[in-house]
Amino acid sequence: MTEAQKAGGVLILIPALNEEASVGGVVHEVRAAMPHAAILVADDASSDATRTVALEAGADVLTLPAHLGLGGCVQAGYKLAFELGFEYVIRVDGDGQHDARDIPRILDTLRSTGCQMVIGSRFCAGGQNGHTSMARAVGITVFRLLLRPILGKSVYDPTSGFVGVSREALGVFSRSFPLEYPEIEALVVLQRRRFRFVEVPCQMRPRRHGRSTITALKSFYYLVHVLLGVFVNILKLEGRRWLGLRKA
Asked: 151 with 141: CB under 8 angstroms?
């Protein structure tokens, strides 16, 4: 990671767990789309050659000493990016499902709108969805309905991992970030901070190699776990509002 890249202020974060078959291609695609950006692969204690492949492709690698799960892996990348002074971080999954050519749109929207988060959405106008399982589709529908009254606006793709954040959000997420299934709870955290987000259309492709670890049973667990996390965040939000009224 060069000083020139740090000065440019943009980091592409690729969380990866056992993605040796795809992470190299992802890094090359990101480099083609963002030739001057820093690229960091956060390796969540992979048991395969993910780290070696990422290094050979030209990325910097943050190797975690133990498996932290997606949220912990992303937070580790956010924390390093914040400490190094980056202004924007855009997260791209390591399995090749996100099209790196959509990264400039996310970055331009962060800069032009002043929002703290921009979500690459498969389902808003102009987006393309390569594949979504039935279980995940049901979950997305439930989360849309749940989040609408909480956020005060609709979110079409609440489980998208194709996300850009500003330094303001980066500072918050580097200190506290949902650990297991972070995307939806992160939106509620943003709401608690009165931060703003927008969605932009992106393309989602089928996974290039391997199989997703999210089975129907895990999808159900995911749904229940995230619902509990959202309700906890709502209680925190309402508690702060109540304390604010008491002080007033």
From this structure: no
Instruction: Specify whether the CB–CB gap between 150 and 191 falls below 8 A.
Output: yes
- How far is the C-alpha of 50 from the C-alpha of 48, rounded, in Å? 6
Question: What is the rounded average pLDDT of the residues 157-176?
Answer: 91
Neighbouring residues of 171: CB distance < 8 A, sequence distance ≥ 6: 82
Distance of CA 65 to the CA centre of its chain: 21
Torsion of CA 58, 62, 64, 67, to 10 degrees: -60
Q: How many CB atoms lie within 10 A of CB 152?
A: 8
Burial of 63 (0-12, 13-18, 19+ CB in 10 A): middle
Coil/strand/helix, residue 46: coil
Report which of residues 81 and 205 the model is more confident about: 81
CATH number of 3-247: 3.90.550.10
Tell me which residue of 14, 16, 21, 18 sits closest to 209, measured CA to CA. 21
Q: Is pLDDT above 90 for 85?
A: yes
Q: Render pLDDT for 188-202 as a digit per residue (tens, 0 to 9).
A: 788 778 889 999 999
Residue 220 pLDDT more than 80? no
Q: What is the pTM of this model?
A: 0.81
The span from the CA of 159 to the CA of 155, in Å, is 10
Paired tokens of 36: 């001057």
